């Protein structure tokens, strides 16, 4: 029986263990002794030493730096000594609390990975004076024989190896170009998590556990709290120390680790309730701001009306609100611009005032719902007559008795200058057609539909079928007004 088997040998004890180390319900756990690692593990499962949870800060799913370090070193968790989990766990926690942006390259730059026979792989500081994590136990003989087999949702994304492997020295070689030098210098100079004897970043203080062993590694010449050498630490220099004091490192966005330590973890129920309360308060404040903002005049919705084109075919925009129609010509007078100078009027009033100035003074015809207003006859050129139906030919005027019919005048041919035989034939056709071109007045139509909170404005210009009193627009275009 292992030293920690009693912590998980019953369902009640397993539930306590899962709650203490925040094991998600989707992760399956079962105890495994040292001799059952090979026989009890199934495909897709991983074997983790129990000491990694108790004193190594292990979580499931694994934290980022721990997972990436094992993945790049090709090590399964059962191959790692307890001190490796403590160092990797401390770096993960410090990085999360202080927002430093560290990676596994930073750990590989400060620590060497060694193998000691059957003891597995462990980490050793490359510089005995500059240590990232301190207060590591001297021996781990009685804490490395108990394991847990994790199954189910024990990982998210890329997971660490589940079978034993060996590191590739060329792949894990330390590279200064991949190291976050400012973050490491800031962390190594920080006097945080100081032990009773002055050691910096003590493992049991960072991870918050009661150490099982009180025998720690000798401090030797390691830099302690209050040492003047703290200001000389620079991992980019040989020996990680400069000959003189260096200016302090300033990192934007770095946090106080003690303040971050006091915050509850995001998976606790109290945090979810607090987040919901903050979201509700922000929503209420937003509604109050919206209520304070109001328009000068609200537009009342008008009932829907159906329109049809002259051919009797239903248009896709036929079911719309009753429109307000304004006809705008190229020439604008001063009388039309005077209503626009008024202040405090809505767009509906301004458009209505322009429509009154151009519309007919007589009573509206019953067909006004389907046809635009009357086009002034004065805009037509002399000699042109209105054709009610363009499909039919214009009737020939027959003179009454005693009246002499006007004879159509022939266009006299004009003498042309001699042109080159190589001239473009299209130019001659263009010149011949210039005499028959007649300029017609351009009329613009503006349809404003008040069918909802967002009105739709239709503006059109195109060929017009002239009727005795009305004009129908053939080509229109639609655009949606976002706000008035």
Automatic annotation (TrEMBL):
Which residue ranges are recorded for the region named Disordered? 262-434
Which protein is depicted?
Uncharacterized protein
Please indicate which superkingdom the organism of origin belongs to.
Answer: Eukaryota
Q: What species is given as this protein's source?
A: Quercus lobata
